[in-house]
Design brief:
Layout: E1 18-20, E2 41-44, E3 54-57, H1 84-88, H2 128-132, H3 144-154, H4 157-164, H5 177-190, H6 198-203, H7 217-236, H8 242-245, E4 247-255, E5 258-266, E6 269-272, E7 277-278, H9 279-286, E8 290-294, E9 297-307, E10 311-317, E11 319-322, E12 327-330, E13 335-336, E14 340-342, E15 358-370, E16 373-380, E17 388-392, E18 395-399, H10 401-404, E19 416-425, H11 429-432, H12 443-466, E20 469-475, H13 477-481, E21 502-507, H14 512-522, E22 530-537, E23 543-548, H15 556-563, E24 573-580, E25 583-584, E26 587-588, E27 601-609, E28 614-623, H16 630-637, E29 645-652, E30 655-659, E31 676-681, H17 697-711
Parallel strand pairs: 1-2, 6-10, 7-13, 20-24, 27-31
Antiparallel strand pairs: 2-3, 4-5, 4-9, 8-9, 10-19, 11-12, 14-15, 15-16, 15-19, 16-17, 17-18, 20-21, 22-23, 22-24, 25-26, 27-28, 29-30, 29-31
C-alpha cells in the first residue's frame, strides 16, 4: 500500500489513497483496510485475474448531507452520534472535531420562493383537486395518449359548452361516443377524484387488449377530431366547431408561368423539427417555395395561409427515417417556441388583418422516451394569462412557465421534448377559454349522471355490506326428492322450483345455533332435529356432503373457517345439507356417529324409473363399510327381498359406473359419505313400453349431459 502524504484534504486527511491487492481478491492475507482514511483510489496490480493493471476511482464519503422536509414528516434527526474517540481525540492523520474544546458551526440558509406551492411535496398523499381545483384521468394501461387529448378538449371552454348542448335521443344515447364524452366532461367538472375513461373506451369499441397498446398522441388527436366531425354532421348536418380548429392554406402552382390556385384545409399543422431550432424556422420551411420538373415542364409551388384557426394545433415532426440504421428514429433536436407567436408573416397578402394575428401558448404535449415507447403528458393553461398546470394521467400539479416551455425545447440528447403545441389567438382567448359553470350543463345530463352516481354508490355499499354476510344454500331431503338432475341440487334453478335449495343471507358473525333455530322454526321442527353438514369440493369437480358440524356454539364464519375446503359456487354461495332427525315417542332420536373408516357413512339414493323415464331423489341411508349393498337399498326403496335391481354410482356427470352387487359390500364398492347411487328396478324387455328411449341409468345420464349445455339441468356451478 502506498499513500501520497503530501496531498492532504480537509483537516489534514489524505485526499489520495492507493490500495493494493497483490493477489487480486483471492488472497485474504494481503488485504489491508484503514477505515479512518478517506479512500479514493484502488489499484489491482493483477486486475480481475488478467495480466493488466487495474486502477479505478472510488467515491469517498460526502462532506454534504441533503434532506427535503415536508409537512407530514416526523423528523427523527440523526440516528447515530459521533464517537467520543473521534470527537475528542486524533486518529492517525485525522484531527479531532473539537479543538480546544470548542467548535465553530456555520450555517448557510437559502430561502427559495415556491410559486407552485408543491416544491416541498413528496406526492405520497397528493390531492390534485385540493391543490389545483382540477382532477386527472385514470390510465387504463397505456392510455396516457388518450388522457392528453381529452384534457385538451375539456379545457377549451367553448368546445365543452358546445358538446354539452348536443341533444341526444334518450332511447339510444347510452353507450354512444358523444354520450360518453358528455359524461366524461361533467365528471371532470364535478368530481373530486380521478376520473375513469372506461365508458369512453367502450364507446370507441375498445377491449382490454387496446388498453395496453402504444399509440401516437398526434394520431389519437386526429381520430377524435374526425369522430367529433362525424357526430356533429350526423346530428346538425354540419360541424359547427370546424372553424375552431380549421386553418386554410392557399397553394399556388405555376406550370411554365401559368398559375393555378387551390385551397386546402387543415385541423393540424405538421412542422419539421430536424435542424430547425425555432418555430419561425419551421414555418418558413413549411412555406418554402418548391420547384420540380414534371414531364419536361418546370413546376413551382408556393404556399401561404389565408386563415389560421382560433385554436392552432402544431404537430412537431419528431420522427425521421435513418438511412444508416434503416429504421425510424426520434428527432430530439432543439426547437424553441415562444409564449406569444405572431403568425402574420405567414399569411397571404389577401388575408384579413383587421384583427391581431398574435397567438398565446396555452398547451404543450410532451413525449418522453424513444420511437418505440414512452409516455405522454400535457401542460395546460386553463385561464388566459394564468399559470400552467401539468396533467400527467391522474395527477395535476402547478408548474412554472419554464417547465412548460424551456424544459421541453429538446436538444442535447434529451429524450423529453415538446410534441404538440397548442396556441390560441389572443383576441379570442376569453371566448375560447370561457369558464364553464353548472348552469351551462343541461338538466338531462346532470339528472342522469346523478342517478347513475347514486346507483353506483348503492352498489358499492351493497358490496361492502356483502362482505359481512354469507349466503347459505340449504339442501334438504325434501328438495332432493323434487330434484331430477346431477348431484344433490342445482344452484341455477329458479327459487320457486321445488328442487331448488333454500338460500339464507346471514351475517358471518351469526351464531350457528341461531341459524339452526331459524331453520327449525320455518319448518315446524325443534332445533334438536337439525344437524348441518358441510359440503366439500371434490377433485372430480363435484360437490357433496362431507362432515357434520358438531359444535353450534360458534359463528358461521368460524364454522366455515374450520372446514377450510367448504364448497362455494361461482355466486359465492356456501352449501349446507340439513339433516332432519326422527322423533320417536316424542323424543328426538340421536344422530348416528359418522366415521369414514369405522362408523356409519351417509349414502344418497336416486331412483330411475325406466318405464316413465324419470330420475328422482329418494333420500339418504346410513351404512357401515362391511354392510352388503343390496339389503339397505331394498329397505330404503320399500321393495321386498328378492326384488331384482341394478345399481349405478353417480361419480360425476361424465362418469356413471355400474356397481356389481354380487358379494359386494359398501367398502369393496368404494362407497362412502356423500356418494350418490342410482337404483333401477329390473323390468323385462317385453314389459317395456315402446316409448322407452333410455334403457338404463347410464343412457339417461348420457342424454342429460348433452342437455346441460343448453338447458343447464344439473350440477353445482363451482368454477
Amino acid at each position: 500500500m502506498g499513500r501520497n502524504s503530501s496531498a492532504l484534504g480537509p483537516r489534514g486527511t489524505p485526499s489520495l489513497l492507493v490500495k493494493m491487492f497483490p493477489m487480486s481478491s483471492t488472497n485474504k492475507n494481503s488485504k489491508l483496510f484503514l477505515d479512518y482514511l478517506n479512500r479514493r483510489i484502488f489499484m489491482y496490480p493483477r486486475g480481475n485475474n488478467t495480466e493488466h493493471l487495474s486502477l479505478y476511482l472510488r467515491h469517498g464519503y460526502e462532506d454534504d448531507a441533503n434532506h427535503r422536509f415536508y409537512d407530514e414528516e416526523a423528523d427523527w434527526g440523526f440516528t447515530k452520534f459521533r464517537e467520543l474517540r473521534k470527537l475528542l481525540g486524533q486518529l492517525g492523520d485525522t484531527p479531532s472535531l473539537l479543538g480546544n474544546e470548542e467548535v465553530n458551526v456555520t450555517a448557510y440558509v437559502r430561502v427559495i420562493k415556491d410559486p407552485t406551492g408543491v416544491l416541498w411535496h413528496n406526492m405520497l398523499n397528493y390531492d390534485s383537486k385540493k391543490v389545483t381545483g382540477m382532477v386527472g384521468l385514470k390510465n387504463l394501461g397505456s392510455t396516457g395518449y388518450l388522457n392528453v387529448v381529452l384534457q385538451l378538449f375539456y379545457f377549451l371552454g367553448a368546445f365543452r359548452k358546445a358538446t354539452y348542448q348536443v341533444p341526444l335521443d334518450d332511447q339510444s344515447k347510452k353507450g354512444t361516443f358523444l354520450w360518453a364524452i358528455q359524461r366524461l366532461f361533467y365528471s371532470l367538472q364535478t368530481s373530486s377524484e380521478t376520473v375513469s375513461t372506461m365508458e369512453l373506451a367502450s364507446a370507441l369499441g375498445w377491449g382490454p387488449m387496446q388498453f395496453f397498446e402504444q399509440h401516437d398522441v398526434q394520431e389519437m388527436l386526429s381520430i377524435l377530431q374526425h369522430r367529433f366531425d362525424e357526430e356533429w354532421k350526423r346530428i346538425f348536418g354540419e360541424n359547427k366547431l370546424s372553424n375552431l380548429f380549421q386553418s386554410r392554406l392557399k397553394v399556388t402552382s405555376s406550370i411554365n408561368g401559368e398559375e393555378h390556385s387551390t385551397a386546402e384545409h387543415y385541423s393540424q399543422i405538421s412542422l419539421n423539427v430536424l435542424s430547425m431550432r425555432s418555430l419561425d424556422a419551421s414555418f418558413e420551411d413549411y412555406l418554402q417555395e418548391q420547384v420540380r420538373q414534371e414531364g419536361g415542364q418546370r413546376v413551382t409551388l408556393n404556399c401561404a395561409f389565408e386563415r389560421f384557426s382560433p385554436v392552432l394545433l402544431l404537430n412537431l415532426k419528431r420522427t425521421s427515417y435513418d438511412n444508416t440504421r434503416r429504421q425510424l428514429v426520434k428527432v430530439n433536436d432543439l426547437l424553441e417556441f415562444p409564449e406569444h407567436f405572431d403568425v402574420s408573416p405567414y399569411l397571404s397578402p389577401e388575408a384579413d388583418r383587421s384583427e391581431s394575428w398574435i397567438y398565446q401558448l396555452v398547451g404543450v404535449v410532451v413525449h418522453s422516451g424513444g420511437i418505440f415507447g414512452g409516455s405522454y403528458w400535457i401542460y395546460l393553461r386553463p385561464k388566459p394569462n394564468g399559470p400552467f398546470f401539468k396533467f400527467d394521467d391522474d395527477r395535476v400539479t402547478p408548474v412554472l412557465l419554464k417547465e412548460a416551455m424551456e424544459d421541453n425545447y429538446g436538444g442535447d440528447g434529451q429524450s423529453k421534448n415538446a410534441y404538440i403545441l397548442i396556441y390560441i389567438r389572443k383576441s379570442r382567448l376569453g371566448e375560447i377559454l370561457a369558464p364553464v359553470t353548472d348552469n351551462d350543463v343541461p338538466e338531462s345530463i346532470k339528472t342522469e349522471f346523478q342517478r347513475d352516481k347514486e346507483a353506483t354508490s348503492r352498489a358499492i355499499k351493497e358490496r361492502q355490506e356483502n362482505l359481512l354476510y354469507i349466503k347459505l344454500s340449504l339442501v334438504t331431503d325434501v328438495s332432493f326428492r323434487n330434484y331430477h338432475g346431477f348431484d344433490l341440487t342445482n344452484d341455477r334453478l329458479e327459487p320457486d322450483d321445488a328442487g331448488a335449495p333454500t338460500v339464507l343471507r346471514v351475517l358471518e358473525e351469526t351464531q350457528l345455533s341461531n341459524v339452526i333455530n331459524q331453520i327449525a322454526t320455518e319448518r315446524g321442527l325443534v332445533p334438536e332435529q337439525i344437524r348441518l353438514w358441510h359440503f366439500v369440493n371434490r377433485q372430480n369437480k363435484t360437490c357433496r356432503p362431507y362432515m357434520p358440524i358438531t359444535n353450534d356454539n360458534i359463528t358461521i364464519q368460524q364454522a366455515f373457517a374450520q372446514m377450510g375446503a367448504s364448497a362455494r359456487t361461482a355466486n359465492g354461495i356456501s352449501f349446507l345439507w340439513v339433516e332432519v332427525g326422527d322423533v320417536v315417542s316424542g323424543k328426538v332420536s340421536p344422530f348416528p356417529a359418522v366415521d369414514g373408516t369405522k362408523g356409519a357413512s351417509v349414502i344418497f339414493l336416486k331412483y330411475f324409473d325406466v318405464v316413465n323415464q324419470t330420475l328422482t331423489g329418494v333420500g339418504h341411508i346410513y351404512v357401515r363399510p362391511d354392510d352388503p349393498v343390496g339389503p339397505p337399498v331394498l329397505k330404503a326403496m320399500g321393495w321386498p327381498m328378492g326384488t331384482e335391481f341394478t345399481l349405478y354410482e353417480e361419480v360425476k356427470p361424465s362418469m356413471i359406473s355400474k356397481v356389481d352387487l354380487r358379494m359386494m359390500t359398501f367398502a369393496r364398492a368404494e362407497l362412502g359419505t356423500g356418494d350418490i347411487i342410482c337404483v333401477q328396478k329390473v323390468v323385462k324387455r317385453n314389459e317395456l313400453p315402446d316409448s322407452v328411449v333410455y334403457k338404463n341409468v347410464a343412457e339417461y345420464f348420457d342424454n342429460l349431459t348433452n342437455e346441460i349445455n343448453t338447458k343447464k339441468l344439473g350440477g353445482l356451478n363451482l368454477n
